[in-house]
Q: What sequence folds into this?
């Protein structure tokens, strides 16, 4: 069976806020331009333009997850009548609290740091938002292709000419099934990567095209989130609570959030830095522990979780962003690190990046010139935008936490008042997330601490939460989590780090199980082997990021597989 070749003018990879905003804005610009030409303005009309958005999930929004409190600045630029058109917000923000939690008590900050003030912002579900945007894009003639994962880049003579989508109908042994269907080669004059954090194609092209040369390494956190359904009257719609402290140690970046999504729904989540020193650091476990705090427990009492998900978050800031353009290529959204860690926000920056990409592509269409110099206009647009101003103002935010929370608080406060400058310099060097992990014996000389048992009412184990994520994959397909050498897992990693993949994965994908085919060790303990439960995967990319040996590679599974998030 021959591989189909599809020709588009412009293609966006990923139907998140960046890709969909870019497609909508480009369609609007073309329509406005052609209307002006029809009305007698000088110039030439742009011929019919094919704009495609390729999305790996079964429906747009199924893989969409964020906190989410959105700054509406960018969406108001995209469509000034966004409210009138029915943008699916949960609520306008009605109150802000920042809480410092200890193991048994809490302290409300007497003021909200400027970066965390949310007056004028809205609480929403990212999945609902992108589902709505997809409908608008389709109304404008954009092709939104679901179950179409971009698996590999197509590069000729240093120019990105498109992407190859994933094959379907391959069994777990790599053999073709009767349902085999090869992926298509999707060619375009320009490809815009909006894959989200640690994108599969972005990761390949960053190395192949040297997009990260001279840049700081990106550093990530993992956000884990549950939606709790509460009895009527128990949720203050629009209430925003951020927490710091418990259950995280002083030297672990992160914090919690509780948002009133509606009058019956709490959005409850925890962000844990993947640059944690402790190899047993567990983002899912941290959320469960946070919920046991008396302050949080009281808010959730009488409710039940109805949805769950997890996602990596690019926290590196301005200096960790890759080059944003190359020959035939633009990068947007989380793929390019458009996230303000100090404000805990990225949706508005993703939308703005997509719009700036669209303006660059519109210029290319008018000039009929998609050369590398013309596409580099995107970099200049970003540099001159309010998005860049905002990102530069938080350029050293995450790095300030390298010395721990108590030192970071005054440092980040200083940064916020002087435009991002840190007391120790204008450019604090970053580090890759996995580089800070210490050996197990250094952190826990007496062995791993016990894992609290879930009670099934307030706290839940990973498998129970994975069920709430709706994740589903065809079991008879190649494992999409590629481990270069499983012997490292059974020997070196077990001895040095205690197999941290069992802890940092929020979906119980990685398990060390008894290897019945090998004799016991000298101390009588069994030999272990890695078992990969790929069907549990929620596509968060944590393993690809946090593995201390960097031997795990996340690749796209068959299209349509993965989580089916609701209200996340």
A:
């Amino acid at each position: 069976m021959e591989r189909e070749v599809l020709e588009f003018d412009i293609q966006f990879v990923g139907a998140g806020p960046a890709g969909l905003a870019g497609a909508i804005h480009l369609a609007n610009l073309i329509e406005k331009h052609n209307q002006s030409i029809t009305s007698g303005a000088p110039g030439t009309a742009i011929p019919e333009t094919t704009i495609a958005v390729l999305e790996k999930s079964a429906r747009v929004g199924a893989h969409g997850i964020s906190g989410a409190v959105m700054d509406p600045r960018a969406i108001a630029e995209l469509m000034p009548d966004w409210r009138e058109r029915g943008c699916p917000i949960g609520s306008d923000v009605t109150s802000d609290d920042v809480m410092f939690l200890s193991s048994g008590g809490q302290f409300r900050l007497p003021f909200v740091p400027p970066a965390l003030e949310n007056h004028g912002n809205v609480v929403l579900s990212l999945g609902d938002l992108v589902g709505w945007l997809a409908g608008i894009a389709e109304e404008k003639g954009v092709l939104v292709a679901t179950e179409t994962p971009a698996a590999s880049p197509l590069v000729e003579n240093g120019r990105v000419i498109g992407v190859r989508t994933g094959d379907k109908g391959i069994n777990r042994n790599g053999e073709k099934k009767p349902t085999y269907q090869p992926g298509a080669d999707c060619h375009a004059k320009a490809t815009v990567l909006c894959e989200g954090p640690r994108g599969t194609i972005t990761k390949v092209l960053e190395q192949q095209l040297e997009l990260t040369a001279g840049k700081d390494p990106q550093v990530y956190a993992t956000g884990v989130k549950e939606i709790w359904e509460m009895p009527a009257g128990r949720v203050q719609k629009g209430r925003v609570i951020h927490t710091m402290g418990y259950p995280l140690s002083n030297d672990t970046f992160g914090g919690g959030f509780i948002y009133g999504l509606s009058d019956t729904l709490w959005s409850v989540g925890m962000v844990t830095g993947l640059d944690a020193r402790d190899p047993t650091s567990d983002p899912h476990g941290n959320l469960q522990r946070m919920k046991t705090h008396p302050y949080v427990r009281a808010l959730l009492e009488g409710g039940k979780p109805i949805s769950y998900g997890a996602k990596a978050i690019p926290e590196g800031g301005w200096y960790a962003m890759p080059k944003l353009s190359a020959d035939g290529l633009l990068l947007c959204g989380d793929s390019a690190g458009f996230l303000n860690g100090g404000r805990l926000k990225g949706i508005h920056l993703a939308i703005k990046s997509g719009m700036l990409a669209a303006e660059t592509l519109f210029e290319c269409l008018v000039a009929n010139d998609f050369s590398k110099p013309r596409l580099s206009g995107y970099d200049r647009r970003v540099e001159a935008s309010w998005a860049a101003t905002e990102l530069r103002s938080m350029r050293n935010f995450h790095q300030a936490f390298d010395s721990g929370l108590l030192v970071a608080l005054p440092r980040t406060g200083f940064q916020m008042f002087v435009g991002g400058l840190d007391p120790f310099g204008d450019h604090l060097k970053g580090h890759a997330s996995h580089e800070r992990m210490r050996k197990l014996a250094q952190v826990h000389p007496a062995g791993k601490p016990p894992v609290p048992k879930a009670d099934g009412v307030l706290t839940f184990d990973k498998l129970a939460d994975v069920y709430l994520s709706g994740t589903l994959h065809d079991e008879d397909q190649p494992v999409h989590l590629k481990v270069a050498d499983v012997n490292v897992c059974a020997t070196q990693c077990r001895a040095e780090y205690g197999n941290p993949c069992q802890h940092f994965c929020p979906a119980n994908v990685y398990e060390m199980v008894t290897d019945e085919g090998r004799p016991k060790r000298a101390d009588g303990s069994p030999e272990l082997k890695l078992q990969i439960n790929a069907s549990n995967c929620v596509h968060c990319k944590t393993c690809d990021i946090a593995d201390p040996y960097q031997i795990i590679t996340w690749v796209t599974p068959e299209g349509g597989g993965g989580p089916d998030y609701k209200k996340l």
In short: The chain is about 25% helix and 25% strand.
